[in-house]
Write a structure and sequence with these properties.
Structural class of chain A: mainly alpha
Number of domains of chain B: 1
Strand order of the largest sheet of chain B: 1-2
Radius of gyration of chain A: 19 Å
CATH topology of chain A: ABC transporter involved in vitamin B12 uptake, BtuC
Largest interface: A-B, 47 and 43 residues
Order of helices and strands of chain B: HHHHEEHHHHHHH
Largest sheet of chain A: 2 strands, antiparallel
Helix content of chain B: over 70%
Strand content of chain A: under 5%
Shape of chain B: globular
Helix content of chain A: over 70%
Radius of gyration of chain B: 19 Å
Structural class of chain B: mainly alpha
Shape of chain A: globular
Number of strands of chain A: 2
Strand content of chain B: under 5%
Number of helices of chain B: 11
Strand order of the largest sheet of chain A: 1-2
Oligomer: heterodimer
Chain lengths: 323, 286
């Protein structure tokens, strides 16, 4: 991973985020924590949409399995939050593999359809399964957040910093993946399938890697949501969640990680603001944002990704072939 | 056992009416219409609003079904208008647009009608049960089976055996040739979207007494229709029929005999079919 000069500009942003507990009240800090989690998940989806060219309409499934895995672990095995993230990531990876096996050999449009269907099946399973609490969901205990030990600060503040640290770590990990040969090959498989095949790459395997990385990331986000709310219910994995995540990626620009991250934070803040003033009209607003995003994309959503990539220096292509 | 099987056939018939529109619009117009579930929802809730919660007569039900076909076709026209600005774009763009529209439409429907569980009462004269193989079976479900079989036969004949059907198929196979024969290709495509949407709204009326009207119904039925199409194979009417019956029967039997695992059965079926045939049972290889 190369650190560029523009990365230095990120430092003040990071400092501003880290200092948020000092200038944001408890309610808004809670909303901001949710925003960070959605931002993290949006990065995971952006990797899949932007780098591998696989638009998923069903990432709520990963939010759900991650969230329920963390809840079950906390209830029955261990209350260690980090262990919760680990297990959630594993379960997310397994589900991503299953989705990949089902969808990646078919035509592109099947991926849209199958991901959407998968999310709704997981949603239905969560509602109907009594050991998952059915419609009422699962509540877990208010476990301490491991960061600074028992420091006497409110849970909300510790939680915020914990989520921020995880989000930064995941951002760095995703950048590592993208900069690694496999990340470059994934991008290559989207831009030029045939050439990657001729170079001896398995396009199927590359897509599978992207899907698993994305599924693991979003499942970890789901676990964080459960740990933050000490609660998960089927409502967290309704189709609305998948759509919200995709809107974040599209608004933020799917070829970057930080764009979707910031769009994630922003849209959660917007949702909080609209929900408190307009209540249930939020879904209508989300639908409108969605429709307008589609209409005002210059060449359609998928080509927006290509359109942005043209700005990149040409040497990038040479680098890609060298691997 | 036989009664459960018949129940499954009724649900399968309903799924056919719903999913055949989805597959025709995809196969002939190349649009993945994710607003299909919302059209179903509009059909069901409007029928409920017209009856005012009362029991319609058989004639009333027939009129409502015909009216919903017209309403659905009208919404299909609006849908093709809204797709115009993004004509020629990829499937994702269409899918996102139709999904966004579906969110708006179903949210408006719920806002106008309230969010509780509601059900459309079965028409008087169809609300009895008859005895089949020693068990009681609702007459209305037999009607659903008969009506969906008729619709299936009608769609098959219309698209495979008539001049209108061959013109429609030509619109995707060779639009230029069709155009030079004097047909308006754009109008043919709009016609297909209108017909498919009409079928979805009709399915909404037929299905309302079987599946409760409730929030989330649009995505639920959309998911079922997508699974039908994925399992049966995109763009094939026979594939939709086989997929719809399989899923209707599997789901009904599963709920009756294996309630704990019923919600995973559809997932398992989809996984199994796609492992063996990624293009679906009757789909053409990519």
């Amino acid at each position: 991973m190369r650190v560029s000069r523009s990365d230095l500009l990120l430092l003040p942003v990071l400092v501003a985020f880290a200092a948020a507990p000092f200038w944001v009240d408890a309610f808004n800090l809670d909303v901001l924590t949710t925003g960070l989690i959605y931002g993290l998940m949006a990065m995971g989806l952006a990797l899949l949409v932007g780098q591998a060219g696989l638009p998923s309409l069903g990432h709520a499934a990963f939010v759900g399995v991650g969230g329920y895995a963390a809840a079950l672990l906390s209830l029955h095995v261990s209350e260690n939050p980090l262990l919760g993230l680990l297990v959630a990531g594993l379960v997310g990876g397994v589900l991503a593999t299953l989705l990949g096996v089902m969808s990646l050999r078919s035509k592109g449009v099947y991926f849209l359809m199958i991901s959407l269907a998968l999310a709704e099946l997981v949603h239905a399973a969560a509602i109907r399964n009594n050991s998952l609490g059915g419609d009422n969901g699962l509540s877990i205990s208010n476990a301490p957040i491991p960061l600074l030990g028992a420091n006497g600060l409110p849970r909300g503040v510790n939680l915020y910093w914990y989520v921020l640290v995880i989000a930064v770590v995941i951002y760095l990990l995703l950048r590592l993946v993208l900069a690694a040969p496999v990340g470059q090959a994934i991008l290559g498989s989207k831009d030029n399938n045939e050439r990657m095949r001729a170079l001896g790459y398995s396009v199927l395997a590359l897509r599978m890697v992207a899907l698993v990385v994305s599924g693991v990331t979003v499942a970890i986000g789901g676990a964080l949501l459960t740990q933050k709310d000490v609660f998960i219910s089927p409502a967290a994995l309704s189709p609305e969640t998948s759509i919200l995540l995709l809107v974040m990626v599209l608004v933020g620009g799917s070829s970057s990680l930080l764009g979707p991250f910031l769009a994630g934070v922003g849209l959660v803040l917007l949702r909080s603001y609209i929900s408190s003033s307009l209540g249930e009209y939020w879904v209508l607003v989300l639908g409108l944002i969605f429709v307008l995003t589609v209409y005002f994309m210059p060449q359609g959503v998928a080509s927006l990704v290509r359109w942005q990539r043209k700005d990149r220096p040409v040497e990038r292509t040479g680098e890609l072939v060298a691997h | 056992m036989l009664v459960n099987l018949l129940d499954g056939v009724a649900i399968g018939g309903l799924l056919f009416v719903l999913a055949v529109g989805l597959t025709l619009i995809f196969g002939l117009v190349d649009v993945l219409n994710l607003a299909h579930g919302a059209l179903y929802m509009v059909g069901g809730y409007l029928a409920l609003a017209i009856t005012g919660g009362g029991r319609p007569s058989i004639l009333g039900l027939v009129l409502i079904v015909l009216l919903m076909a017209v309403v659905g076709a009208g919404m299909g026209l609006l849908l093709s208008l809204s797709l115009k600005p993004i004509a020629g774009k990829d499937h994702l763009t269409q899918a996102l647009l139709t999904l966004g529209l579906a969110m708006i439409v179903s949210e408006l429907v719920l806002h106008l009608s309230g969010r509780g569980f509601k059900t459309l009462r079965v028409a008087s004269g169809l609300s009895d049960s008859i005895e089949i193989a020693g068990s009681q079976f609702p007459v209305y479900r037999l009607v659903v089976i008969a009506v969906s079989a008729l619709i299936a036969l009608g769609t098959y004949l219309a698209f495979e055996r008539t001049r209108l059907g061959s013109v429609t198929r030509a619109a995707i196979d060779d639009p230029q040739m069709l155009g030079s024969c004097g047909y308006n290709v754009g109008r043919v495509k709009v016609g297909v979207i209108a017909a498919g949407s009409a079928l979805a709204a009709v399915a909404g009326v037929l299905g309302a007494p079987l599946l409760n009207l409730r929030p989330g119904l649009d995505t639920e039925v959309l998911t079922l229709a997508l699974i039908v199409v994925v399992v049966g194979g995109l763009g094939s009417i026979k594939g939709v029929a086989i997929g719809a019956l399989t899923i209707g029967i599997l789901q009904t039997m599963g709920t009756a005999y294996l309630p704990e695992v019923a919600s995973y059965l559809l997932f398992g079926l989809m996984l199994a079919v796609l492992l063996v045939r990624p293009q679906g049972l009757l789909g053409e290889a990519a």
